[in-house]
Structure formats: structure tokens, C-alpha cells
Design a protein that fits this description.
Layout (H helix, E strand, L loop, with lengths): L2 E3 L2 H9 L4 E3 L6 E5 L3 H11 L8 E3 L3 H4 L8 H10 L4 E6 L6 H4 L4 E5 L4 H9 L4 E2 L14 H8 L5 E3 L11 E6 L2 E6 L5 H8 L3 E2 L22 E4 L2 H7 L5 E5 L12 E3 L6 H17 L4 E4 L7 H13 L2
Parallel strand pairs: 1-8, 2-8, 4-6, 5-9, 10-11, 12-15, 13-14, 13-15
Antiparallel strand pairs: 2-3, 3-7, 4-7, 5-6, 9-10
Magnesium ion (MG) binds next to loops.
């Protein structure tokens, strides 16, 4: 098992020797290594069992730092960065050669993000290089939102996890790219389309679901528990699966016909931010319960609700 602690010097020493470290961000925990070292990046793909066609996000402490790694920041990208960084926003920008091709899977853009977590901000400021960090879970499984989640799944592959407590957003960053300087959302996430559009106007949404998409976080099956997950009207689903042991993931209320201990409610007050915070942790719990099937319902498709529904759908795809 990895050690969990808040010793920045220890994290720095490991990262400087091309080792992996689990890091907290406001969205989900990342599996970090030196983004300028091909050797360090290769260890990420190995530990996650991640296909090489899936590019990594590079984390920086500031907009100024981002300029070291990209050739150009379109006007609307800069507007968004100024407004939402540090925060749950990744910008796809034309990369400089200093970013290894392995990090971007050979693409000429690099995903850059300035995360918002005091410990990781401090870490990024102290390091002489940016950090490549995908979510710290085996490829295709539910993303981790606390250090214990990371340890449960990758503890035998890494030595240290920085303890930043529970992630307060709980959904991965929203990914925005640009075509002729027009913003396009490739992954819905912790920053809502409404929030983005309030700053830059219309944002087109292009969520891929093919087998080799531009943003594999958009693979049809992703963020998935081991158990079968079915989405629909909970009362109807519970009745139809009465012969099985059922786990329930509900939006704002418990349902009848299933033991209360086998149910998780995302937000009793119908608060979508709270629902997002709980989503991955509850999916993990339900996955570990003695149930045969997990029944879930969609949440209202506004604000963060769209990203929550997106994750639920991918988690339910076989
Ligand atoms: O919130 C987050 O973004 C978290 C934390 C740790 O920062 N990271 C994260 O990384 O979710 P990951 O690797 O699980 O998902 C990154 C997604 C992948 O689907 C990848 O395909 C996409 O970002 N991506 C990265 N660079 C890209 C690029 N140049 N073009 C298209 N998609 C890219
Ligand atoms: Mg991921």
C-alpha cells in the first residue's frame, strides 16, 4: 500500500526521480508524474493500464506557466482561463515540442489545466516542471475522490499519495478545445456549459462515443463500476428487478421496496453540486455492496446535472 500524507518534500523528491505520486485536485485525485519526462509519463500509462491513444492533461500553477508549453492561446481561451483558473477547466491548446508526444498521444494539442487545491498549487509552484495527471484509477473504472480510493486501486503501484481530503467538485474538469477560435466542449465536467457561455457566448458540444475518439474520457463505456448499472425510472426498475439484490442510486429521495442501507441519495436537497460531489464515492460503495445490480436515475439536465447524467450513462454502458 502507498503511504498517505501531506509531506510536500517527499512528493517532490519522488516526482524529481520520475516516480508517480497521487495528488488531490478539486475535481478528482490525479496520478501525477513529470510531464516533461517520457520515462515518467510512461509509468502513468503502465500503472493505469491505459491505452497509449488516450492523451494526458498537463497541470500548471498559473496562466503564465501555461505559456511555457503552448505556442498560442486563442482570445476566448484566455478569457476562460482568466475567469475560471484555478478551476475545473481543461483547455486544448497547440503544444510546444517540449511536451513529449507520449503525453498527447501524438496530437498537436495539449490539454492544460490549472487545478484548484492548496496542496497541489503549492506543489506545482515548487516543482521545476508541470505534472501530467490522469484520474488516479485503473483505465475505465470510477474516478477517485479521496486518497483511500486511490490506495484501494493503485496502492501497490505507487509509493505516496498526497492527502488533500475529499474532492469538493467530484466530477472531472470540463474539456474545451477551439476550432477557428470557437470554443467546443469535448467533455462535460465540473464547470457547467452555462457558466462557460456566460463568459464566451455559444459553446458547441461534441461528445464523442466512438472507439477512438479525440477525448477518450468520452468512450462509450467509462467511469464504470464492476456491477451492472441500469438507468431509468426507479420505481419501475425496482419492480422489474424484484428477484435480484438491488442497490439504488437516487437523486433526492429514498425509494420503497429496497432496504435503506442499500440505497444512496445524491442530494436530499436536490443540490446538483452536492450530487456531483457524492456521485463517484456512492457508485464505489454500491459496487462493493452485496448487490446484483445497481439501479440509478438521471438528475435534472441543467448545470452540473448534464455532466452527472453523462457519467451515469457511460457507467451503465457495457
Ligand atoms: O479533472 C480532471 O481533468 C482530472 C484531474 C486529475 O485533473 N484529470 C482527468 O484526466 O480527468 P483523465 O486522463 O482521466 O482524462 C483526460 C481526458 C481524456 O479523456 C483525454 O482523452 C482528454 O482528456 N485529453 C487530454 N488531452 C487531450 C487532447 N490533446 N485532445 C483531446 N483530448 C484530450
Ligand atoms: Mg479518467
Amino acid at each position: 500500500m502507498a503511504e498517505i500524507g501531506s509531506d510536500l518534500q517527499k512528493a517532490i523528491a519522488l516526482l524529481q526521480s520520475d516516480e508517480l505520486v497521487g495528488i488531490p485536485t478539486e475535481t478528482v485525485y490525479g496520478l501525477a508524474s513529470n510531464a516533461l519526462s517520457t520515462k515518467a509519463i510512461a509509468k502513468i500509462f503502465e500503472a493505469k493500464d491505459r491505452p497509449f491513444f488516450d492523451p494526458l492533461i498537463v497541470h500548471v500553477p498559473s496562466i503564465e506557466a501555461a505559456y511555457q508549453y503552448v505556442t498560442h492561446i486563442p482570445e476566448k481561451a484566455l478569457l476562460l482561463a482568466n475567469h475560471f483558473w484555478p478551476g475545473p477547466l481543461t483547455l486544448l491548446l497547440p503544444k510546444k515540442p517540449i511536451i513529449p508526444d507520449l503525453a498527447t498521444s501524438g496530437l498537436n494539442t495539449v490539454g492544460i489545466r490549472c487545478p484548484q487545491h492548496p496542496l497541489t498549487t503549492q506543489l506545482l509552484k515548487l516543482l521545476p516542471f508541470p505534472l501530467a495527471a490522469p484520474s488516479a484509477n485503473p483505465f475505465g473504472y470510477i474516478s477517485p475522490t479521496n486518497p483511500q480510493h486511490v490506495n484501494q486501486q493503485l496502492g501497490d503501484k505507487i509509493r505516496y499519495i498526497l492527502d488533500g481530503g475529499e474532492c469538493n467538485v467530484g466530477l472531472e474538469s470540463t474539456i474545451i478545445g477551439f476550432e477557428q477560435d470557437q470554443p467546443i466542449a469535448y467533455r462535460l465536467g465540473g464547470l457547467s456549459i452555462e457558466q462557460l457561455e456566460a463568459i464566451v457566448g455559444k459553446v458547441e458540444i461534441q461528445l464523442n462515443a466512438s472507439s477512438n475518439p479525440a477525448a477518450p474520457g468520452q468512450l462509450k463505456s467509462h467511469y464504470a463500476p464492476g456491477k451492472k448499472l441500469i438507468i431509468g425510472d426507479l420505481e419501475t426498475l425496482v419492480a422489474a428487478h424484484a428477484h435480484l439484490r438491488i442497490g439504488v442510486l437516487a437523486f433526492n429521495r429514498n425509494v420503497s421496496g429496497v432496504e435503506i442501507t442499500q440505497q444512496r441519495v445524491l442530494s436530499h436537497s436536490s443540490d446538483l453540486s452536492e450530487a456531483a460531489q457524492h456521485l463517484f464515492a456512492y457508485l464505489r460503495e454500491l459496487d462493493q455492496f452485496s448487490v446484483d445490480v445497481i439501479l440509478a436515475e438521471e438528475v435534472p439536465p441543467v448545470g452540473l446535472g448534464r455532466a452527472i447524467n453523462d457519467r451515469l450513462k457511460r457507467a451503465s454502458a457495457q
